[in-house]
Design brief:
This protein is of the alpha/beta class. It has two domains: 88 residues, Beta Barrel (Elongation Factor Tu (Ef-tu), domain 3), CATH 2.40.30.10; 158 residues, Nucleotide-binding domain of ferredoxin-NADP reductase (FNR) module (Rossmann fold). It is 30% helix and 30% strand. It is built from nine helices and 17 strands. α5 packs parallel to α6. The two termini are 17 Å apart. Bound molecules: flavin-adenine dinucleotide (FAD). The site of flavin-adenine dinucleotide (FAD) has 25 residues, from β4, β6, α2 and α9.
Length: 279
């Protein structure tokens, strides 16, 4: 049903799969995601649609191996099928007339920001992209992003590639130099999105962040992915995942993301030790 037609290692911990899903490929917009299950009774995993090919009827997903379900997904091979793939879910990112946009991404957010940069580029907007990672081995999609950006900057924390430092260092310089920047889009680790949002607030530049709260049904019913934005409780799945970064309660989001740490660690350990073959 949802056959994997391509699989590659983007880095040691980041994997890419291309999956047959013609209906999703035909209607997905940037910022939207899918929820997949690997097998009957399996966990529901929300993952961003990193790319789509309407002609081939496929969607591309790029994921970081962080726990049991993503370890299992990384073990899938070309030709195998996923049990379910539900989507496109969530609201498309609303760029609302912005003309000069800086897109900032870190970690697996580099893949998640790709469809947004591509869409802005296709609409003829000016897009500057900044990507960053801890070191060179964790960077990817530089060539792909460069092809759809007017300017591109790369940073690594340790200076092993590009400029040494953080994505926010480059963003600061751009905001100082170019007063016509009217939107910043940030996707990546929560701490990075928090820092970028605090920063752009001083420059009064609208900022969109893509949140990744723990999500279960992804239809707005269970409430697991609730986030506080502008003092209101909203749901990541149906109201987001993109929100105004200046209004998000990042402290609460970070706490909620950590609430199942012990259970997650245990189930990853059990999968690694005993269950390699049980898929
Ligand atoms: C809208 C959305 C889009 C996402 N897009 C991507 C993407 O494109 N690429 C990518 O690598 N990751 C993405 N994520 C995060 C991804 O869903 C989790 O990494 C994955 O579910 C982890 O499952 P696990 O069993 O391997 O890890 P676990 O051991 O279960 O958890 C490891 C960590 O992953 C997060 N997590 C666990 N379960 C969920 C869940 N049901 N929903 C959200 N986060 C969870 C938590 O922070 C947790 O601490 C996205 C999350 C959301 C909400």
């Amino acid at each position: 049903m949802y056959r994997i037609v391509k699989r590659s290692d983007v880095s040691d911990t980041v994997k890419l799969i291309e999956v047959e899903a013609p209906l999703i490929a035909g209607s997905a917009k940037s910022g939207q995601f899918v929820v997949l299950r690997l097998k009957e009774g399996g966990e529901r995993i929300p993952l961003t649609i990193a790319d789509k090919d309407k002609n081939k009827g496929t969607v591309t997903i790029v994921f970081q191996v962080v726990g049991k379900s993503t370890m299992q997904l990384a073990d899938f091979k070309v030709g195998e099928e996923l049990k379910d793939l539900l989507g496109p879910l969530g609201k498309a990112t609303d760029f609302a007339g912005a003309k000069n946009i800086v897109c900032v991404a870190g970690g697996v957010g580099i893949a998640e920001i790709y469809p947004e940069v591509k869409e802005l580029h296709e609409e003829g907007k000016k897009v500057t992209t900044i990507i960053g990672a801890r070191n060179k081995s964790l960077l990817f999609f530089e060539k792909e992003l460069k092809a759809v950006s007017d300017a591109m900057h790369v940073t690594t924390d340790d200076g092993s590639y590009g400029r040494k430092g953080f994505v926010s260092d480059v963003l600061k310089e751009l905001l100082e130099k170019d007063k016509s920047i009217d939107l910043v889009v940030a996707v990546g680790p929560v701490i990075m999105m928090k820092v970028v949002s605090e920063f752009t607030k001083n420059y009064k530049v609208r900022t969109i962040v893509s949140l990744n709260p723990i999500m279960l049904d992804a239809t707005g019913m269970c409430g697991a992915c609730r986030v506080t934005v502008g003092g209101k409780t909203l749901f990541g799945c149906v109201d987001g995942p993109s929100f105004d970064g200046h209004q998000v309660d990042f402290g609460e989001l970070m706490k909620r993301l950590n609430q199942f740490k012990d259970e997650e660690k245990n189930s990853a350990e059990i999968y690694k030790l005993k269950c390699k073959e049980c898929r």
